[in-house]
Amino acid sequence: MRPFRFLTAVDELPDGPSLAAFARRAESIGYSALMAPDHLLAQYAPVPLLTAAAAATERLRVGTFVFNNNLRHPAVLAQELATVDRLSGGRLEIGLGAGWNRPEHDAIGIPFEPVGTRVAKLTEAIRVFKGCFGDERFSLDGEHYTITDYDAQPKPVQRPHPPIFIGGGGRRLLTLAAREAQIIGLAPRLRRDEKGLPTLDAPSITVAATEEKIGWIREAAGDRFPELELNSYPTGGPMVLTNDAKAEARRRADQLRERTGVELTVEEIMESPHVFIGSVKELTQKFIDLRERLGISSFLLDDMETFAPIVEELAGR
Fold first, then answer.
1. Pairing of strands 61-64, 33-36
2. Each residue of 30-47: pLDDT tens digit?
């Protein structure tokens, strides 16, 4: 069984000293990595944020959750990421995604292509990243990217490359992750509402749906499967510390029914790998149970301080 790793993220816009203090606090608690999202919203750009966090710490890893592949050419981003990996002494993790938030694309005039095209672009981009991080010159004559006899510099410290994180809820993206990534994020599926906006596909947060996803990963990964790290995060609503978990689960089930029209039972909510509600003791046991039942050992927590006692007890075990 893989040891537990817990991830945290910065949700606000701290100044430099505050960011450094946050990163050092995360490191002292036992968090494995500080992750940055990648959106054209009220947040810092991920690369400078991760560079600053790495400079303030000694062991804390830094990574993205996750880069939108549509926003940058992968060869340009590869140079930036190799630089971060070198400056941090080999503490970078590279989260990659196909992009899902259409309004961000529309706002700056980047076409929001069909999901098949976006996944195809991500597939080629991974080849570009691995080529850039490799020791030799490489070329790629792809449908979306063309690379000609290119020897990317600098090279990252971690060889053959920093760990790649790919998450998804559908079979196509999870199959790609199983073949190319070292860390796989188990995400719920999204569907489009009547306005065309993404909304949660509620049944996909259940244990049964997660077991199906892991089956897809196992099939696609083959002999690689034991080497993969599985990650989950609280997409079923904010994490809540409470001594009445069932009451909160009922409220969460009511909210899901109102938003999606889907009825999940209290038990399905309570055991979901994407819902974390309960006391410190109950949540500690839930993480242990999820690792034993599903093999999930990596978790992104949404409140660094509130759940510090759990991290202090389980991290690295």
1. parallel
2. 999 999 999 999 999 999
